[in-house]
Specification:
With 67 residues, the chain is of the alpha+beta class. A hairpin with a 5-residue loop joins strand 1 and strand 2. A 3-stranded antiparallel β-sheet has the order 2-1-3, with no helix packed on it. The protein is built from 1 helix and 3 strands. It has 2 domains: 36 residues; 28 residues, no CATH class. Keywords: Signal.
């Protein structure tokens, strides 16, 4: 029983170390050397637009201007 427990523990440790290696993969080049990771894009804020009368409108409509 203890052999099976040791084997299961070794398997769990191997899987956890492998997942850490895959997490760092995007910050490596094709040769495996570390490179600077690209900056994450900031989420864009939805733009609100108003028409000529001052009421909210879809930004694609003619005459609508962003607020």
């Amino acid at each position: 029983m203890s052999k099976i427990l040791r084997l299961a523990l070794a398997f769990a440790v191997a899987l956890s170390s492998a997942s850490a290696a895959y997490a760092a993969a995007p910050c490596r080049d094709a040769k495996g050397k570390f490179v600077k990771c690209p900056a994450a894009a900031a989420p864009t804020k939805p733009t609100k637009c108003k028409d000529a009368k001052g009421k909210f409108a879809k930004c694609g409509t003619p005459g609508a201007k962003p607020v």
